[in-house]
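> example.struct
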C-alpha cells in the first residue's frame, strides 16, 4: 500500500454509530480506577504521563512511516535528538557527530555532553566507511544528518552503518529533511531515526513536536527507559494535531518538493547565484548517493550567492513579499533566511559567497519564482 493510502487510514477509530474520523482526545493527569488493586498492576496506564490512546495511534503512524519497531514522542524536534542521544550514552562515552548537524544539536554535543563526561568528535559528512577510523573503544553513538543542515551534504549511510555495526555503535539520524517520506534510514541500517515533526507533520508553522523511531524493540526500550526516568510527556492536543497532519502530509510534501526543485533549477542558471545546494540537481556533490538512497527530495534547499555584501543579502531578503523571514520549514508558508551568522563548520572550505536558504510552502511555484525575480536586483 502507498504512503498516501496508509496515512489516510492509520490510527483511526473503527466506524460504529456516528464515529468521529479521528480518535478522541482524552486529557488527563489523573486516571481513575474503580478497584484499588488496579493501581499497581503494572501492565496498564495509571497516570497521564503514560500517554493516551491518541499517543498510541500516533506512535503507530510513526512506526509505519519508517518501518520502525518502536516510536517515542517528544515535545520538540530538538528534544527528540537530545533524548535519543541521552538514552544511549553514559559518562565516559564518546560521540561522533556530523560536522553538518543542525546547530542546536552541535551546541548540545559540544557544550552539554561534556558536563556529563561525554566527549564528541566532529566528522566530515562525506566520510563514508572511513568513519571506522574515528571509532574509539568508548564510542557509543554516531549521529548522522543527511542532507546536512544548511549545506546539504549527503552521507553514504549504508557504508557508515556497516562500520558502526561492526563496532557495536548505535547510529542515530536526524531524518527531518526527508520527513521519512523520501528516505528510510532504518532500511539502510540506522538504529534510530529522529524527526522534528514540527515541520511537515505539524505543517502549519504553529506547533512543536518530535518523534524517535527505533529499528528494534531493544533500542526502543532504552529510549522509553530514559524518557520514563526524566518524566517526559507530550500533550494529547499536540499529538492529535500531528496525527491529523499525517492525513494530508503526502500531497503537501509533494507540492512543496516540486516547487523547490523548480526554483532550484531556475536559480542555478542565474548570474547572481554561485551554486545551488539541492541534492536532486546533478551538479550537487552528493547527487549520486542521493539518487541511490532517496526516493525524492524535500521543500528545503540552499543557495550560495555570487560574492556580494551582507547588506545586499539583507536587502534581497527584505524585498521578498511571499517568503516570510523566519526559521523552520515544512509549513504551508514559504520562508527564507540568511545562514552565515549561524554557519559553523570544522571540515569544510569556506563557501564561495553568502548562503541563503529557501523553504518552499504551498504557494504556486510560479508566484514564488516571480517574487524572487523581483527581489534579485537588490543583490547587485
Ligand atoms: C534538521 C532539524 N532537526 C531538528 C530541528 C529541531 O526541531 P524543533 O524546532 O521541533 O525543535 C530542526 C528545526 O529547524 C531541524 O531543521
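> example.seq
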Amino acid at each position: 500500500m502507498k504512503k498516501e493510502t496508509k496515512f489516510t487510514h492509520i490510527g483511526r477509530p473503527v466506524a460504529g454509530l456516528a464515529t468521529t474520523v479521528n480518535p478522541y482526545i482524552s486529557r488527563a493527569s489523573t486516571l481513575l480506577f474503580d478497584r484499588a488493586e488496579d493501581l499497581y498492576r503494572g501492565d496498564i496506564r495509571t497516570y497521564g504521563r503514560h500517554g493516551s490512546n491518541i499517543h498510541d495511534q500516533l506512535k503507530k503512524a510513526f512506526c509505519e512511516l519508517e518501518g520502525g519497531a518502536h516510536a517515542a514522542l517528544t515535545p520538540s524536534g530538538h528534544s527528540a535528538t537530545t533524548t535519543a542521544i541521552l538514552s544511549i550514552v553514559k559518562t565516559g562515552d564518546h560521540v561522533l557527530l556530523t560536522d553538518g548537524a543542525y546547530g542546536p544539536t552541535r551546541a548540545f554535543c559540544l557544550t552539554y555532553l561534556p558536563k556529563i563526561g561525554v566527549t564528541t568528535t566532529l566528522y566530515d559528512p562525506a566520510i563514508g566507511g572511513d568513519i571506522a577510523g574515528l571509532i574509539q573503544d568508548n564510542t557509543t553513538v554516531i549521529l548522522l544528518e543527511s542532507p546536512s543542515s544548511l549545506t546539504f551534504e549527503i552521507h553514504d549511510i549504508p557504508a557508515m552503518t556497516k562500520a558502526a555495526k561492526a563496532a557495536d555503535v548505535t547510529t542515530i539520524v536526524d531524518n527531518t529533511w526527508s520527513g521519512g517520506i523520501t528516505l528510510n534510514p532504518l532500511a539502510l541500517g540506522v538504529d534510530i531515526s529522529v524527526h522534528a515533526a514540527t515541520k511537515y507533520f505539524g505543517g502549519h508553522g504553529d506547533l512543536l513536536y518530535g518523534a524517535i523511531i527505533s529499528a528494534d524493540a531493544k533500542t526502543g526500550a532504552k529510549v522509553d527507559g530514559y524518557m520514563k526516568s526524566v518524566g517526559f510527556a507530550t500533550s494529547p492536543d499536540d499529538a492529535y494535531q500531528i496525527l491529523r497532519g499525517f492525513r494530508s502530509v503526502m500531497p503537501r510534501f509533494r507540492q512543496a518538493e516540486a516547487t523547490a526543485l523548480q526554483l532550484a533549477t531556475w536559480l542555478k542558471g542565474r548570474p547572481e547565484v554561485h551554486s545551488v545546494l539541492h541534492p536532486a540537481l546533478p551538479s550537487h556533490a552528493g547527487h549520486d548517493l542521493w539518487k541511490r538512497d532517496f526516493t525524492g527530495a524535500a521543500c528545503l534547499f540552499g543557495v550560495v550567492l555570487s560574492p556580494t555584501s551582507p547588506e545586499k543579502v539583507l536587502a534581497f531578503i527584505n524585498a521578498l513579499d511571499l517568503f516570510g523571514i523566519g526559521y523552520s520549514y515544512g509549513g504551508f508558508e514559504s520562508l527564507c533566511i540568511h545562514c552565515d551568522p549561524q554557519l559553523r563548520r570544522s571540515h569544510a572550505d569556506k563557501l564561495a559567497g553568502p548562503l541563503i536558504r529557501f523553504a518552499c510552502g504551498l504557494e504556486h511555484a510560479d508566484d514564488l519564482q516571480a517574487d524572487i525575480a523581483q527581489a534579485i536586483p537588490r543583490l547587485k
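> remarks
Residues 76-78, 102, 149, 174, 176, 196, 198, 208, 210, 327-328 surround pyridoxal-5'-phosphate (CB under 6 Å).
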